[in-house]
C-alpha cells in the first residue's frame, strides 16, 4: 500500500471497484487491497499472477487474494512480529466496514440509475424529467460522499502503513538486531560476548540451538510455516529467558543463548529444560489445526575457558551442536 493523494485514491477506486464487481469478487479488505494495487500497476509480478489466475479460474478466489496480500503488500517482519502483526490486523479491519459501505453505496447508485431509466422509458417521461434529475442528483451526491469518506479512510490507513514500514526499517538499520525476531543477531551476540568475557571466569556459558529438519519443514509446509516456526521459538525463548541471559538469532533456525554466571552443568540442565519444553509445543494455523505436532531442536553447550575469544567460544558451541545432530538430533551435546 502506498500513500496516494485523495484525487489519485478516488481515481484508483473508480477503476478497482468496477473490476471487482464485474467478476463478482467480495469487497473484503484483502480483495480490495489486491485490486487497488492491481490498478496502480506498480507491481508487475502481482499483476502477472492475478492475470494468470483469472485466465485459469475465471476469477480470483478469496484465499488467493489473502496469500497475495501477505506476499506483496506486507513486509515479512510485519507478518510475524507480534506487535506489528496486531497493528497490521487493526489497519486491515479499519477499512473493512468502509469497504462494504462503499460497495453498498455503489449498489444503491445502480438502483437509482435503473429506476430512473424505467421512469424515462415511459411515454410521459418529460413530465417526470425534473423528478428524475433530482432523484439522480441525490443518489450521486450520496455515492460521492461515501467515496470521499472511503478515500479519506484509505489515506489514513496508508499513512499508518508507511509509519509501520518506517518502524521496520529502523529495526533493520539497527546492525545488532535481527529484524524478524528482534533478538540480537550474530554481530550483536559477538558485541555482548566481548563485553562479558573480560569479567567472567568459568561461569559464562553459550548455548547454540538449532531447529531440526527445518529444510524439510519448509518443503512440506512452505517457507511461511518455517518462518512462523522460527518466530514461535523466538517468543518461547523470550518467555523462558533467565534474568542473566542474552538471546540471539544467528541465521535460519539457529539461536544462541548466553548464560551469565552459569557453570557447564547448570547450562546443560537449562538446555534440557528448553529442549523438553519445545518438544511439548506444536505450531498451529489460524483455524487451530496443528501444522507441526512436535518441535525438535538440537543444542550445543560450551562454557568459556580462560579468556577465550567470542569467535572461538561460538565455534566450540557450534561444533558441539554438530555433534548433537550426528548423534541423532533432538538432544544436547557439550563435547
Automatic annotation (TrEMBL):
Coiled-coil ranges (or none): 147-174
Keywords: Coiled coil
Matching CDD domains: GGDEF
Domain GGDEF intervals: 202-335
EC number: 2.7.7.65
Domain of life: Bacteria
GO cellular component: plasma membrane
InterPro entries: Diguanylate_Cyclase, GGDEF_dom, Nucleotide_cyclase, Rev_trsase/Diguanyl_cyclase
GO molecular function ontology, one term from the record: diguanylate cyclase activity
Pfam families linked: GGDEF
PANTHER family, alphabetized: DIGUANYLATE CYCLASE VDCA (PTHR45138:SF2), REGULATORY COMPONENTS OF SENSORY TRANSDUCTION SYSTEM (PTHR45138)
Entry keyword annotation includes Coiled coil: yes
Record's protein name: diguanylate cyclase
Amino acid at each position: 500500500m502506498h500513500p496516494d493523494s485523495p484525487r489519485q485514491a478516488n481515481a484508483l477506486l473508480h477503476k478497482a471497484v468496477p473490476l471487482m464487481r464485474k467478476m463478482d469478487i467480495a469487497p473484503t479488505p484483502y480483495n480490495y487491497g489486491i485490486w487497488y494495487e492491481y490498478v496502480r500497476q506498480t507491481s508487475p509480478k502481482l499483476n502477472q499472477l492475478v492475470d494468470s489466475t483469472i485466465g485459469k479460474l475465471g476469477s480470483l478466489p478469496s484465499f488467493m487474494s489473502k496469500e497475495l496480500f501477505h506476499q506483496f503488500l506486507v513486509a515479512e517482519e510485519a507478518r510475524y512480529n507480534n506487535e506489528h502483526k496486531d497493528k497490521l490486523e487493526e489497519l486491515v479491519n479499519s477499512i473493512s466496514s468502509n469497504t462494504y459501505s462503499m460497495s453498498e453505496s455503489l449498489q444503491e447508485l445502480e438502483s437509482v440509475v435503473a429506476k430512473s431509466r424505467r421512469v424515462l422509458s415511459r411515454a410521459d417521461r418529460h413530465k417526470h424529467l425534473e423528478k428524475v434529475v433530482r432523484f439522480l442528483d441525490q443518489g450521486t451526491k450520496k455515492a460521492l460522499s461515501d467515496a470521499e469518506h472511503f478515500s479519506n479512510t484509505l489515506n489514513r490507513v496508508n499513512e499508518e502503513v508507511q509509519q509501520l514500514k518506517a518502524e521496520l526499517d529502523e529495526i533493520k538499520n539497527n546492525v545488532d538486531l535481527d529484524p524478524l525476531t528482534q533478538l540480537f543477531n550474530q554481530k550483536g551476540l559477538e558485541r555482548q560476548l566481548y563485553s562479558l568475557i573480560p569479567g567472567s571466569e568459568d561461569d559464562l556459558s553459550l548455548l547454540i540451538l538449532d531447529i531440526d529438519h527445518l529444510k524439510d519443514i519448509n518443503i512440506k509446509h512452505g517457507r511461511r510455516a518455517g518462518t512462523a516456526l522460527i518466530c514461535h521459538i523466538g517468543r518461547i525463548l523470550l518467555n523462558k529467558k533467565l534474568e542473566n541471559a542474552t538471546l540471539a538469532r544467528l541465521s535460519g533456525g539457529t539461536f544462541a543463548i548466553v548464560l551469565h554466571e552459569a557453570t557447564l552443568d547448570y547450562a546443560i540442565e537449562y538446555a534440557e529444560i528448553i529442549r523438553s519444553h519445545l518438544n511439548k509445543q506444536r505450531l498451529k494455523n489460524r483455524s487451530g489445526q496443528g501444522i507441526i505436532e512436535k518441535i525438535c531442536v538440537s543444542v550445543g553447550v560450551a562454557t568459556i575457558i580462560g579468556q577465550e575469544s567470542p569467535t572461538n567460544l561460538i565455534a566450540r558451541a557450534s561444533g558441539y551442536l554438530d555433534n548433537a545432530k550426528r548423534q541423532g538430533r533432538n538432544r544436547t551435546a557439550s563435547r
